[in-house]
Design a protein that fits this description.
- 44% of the residues lie in helices and 7% in strands.
- By secondary structure, the protein is mainly α.
- It has a domain at 12-135: Arc Repressor Mutant, subunit A (Orthogonal Bundle).
- It has a three-stranded antiparallel sheet with strand order 2-4-3.
Length: 203
Amino acid sequence: MTNVPDHPPADELVLDARTLRGIAHPLRMRLLALLRRDGPSTATKLAERVGVSSASASFHLRTLATYGFIVEDEGPADRHGRERWWRAAHRGTRLEDIPSDPAARAAAIEFVGVVAAAHAQRMQSWVAAMDTAPAEWLQVGSLSDTTLDLTPARAQELLDRIEVLLADFQRHEPDRTLAPDEERVSFQWQLLPEPAAAPRGHR
């Protein structure tokens, strides 16, 4: 799965059997992603963005709150209206292991499936935007892959190195103003064993 340091940052939540039950739902994951990316919002505003009713968004937001993914946001005193505002409780989410318990295992696999679909959709959005994208971003916008022969230990080493490299770059903060030459970018990576296409040792 994803690399997990010995001491995960306080702003990241490591999923367990309980929290997996609360997050393994496409709409909840979409709502949580919006709160993490864009900052505090309400059920009404989020419902408009994802194309569902306010009641549906409110239900799933309350579920996310029950499992500790989001919390109420008091915000500035000049906010109008009585509707609740919500904010993400953590910057990110990590799945450390696939649980052995059948129900939790099913939830973990569903969670990974929703993440994979979201990543694929993000890539398709870039493809759709390429025709009008600035030339400088066309040069660096990249979809690439390579095949490696690794042991589990070497695979973990690769993930560790990626984490160290990313630490040198500016993490997105919802309330941070971008510089004139900056854009918010999505950096995705997958490390996946390939399905066996040939017997081991066959060349």
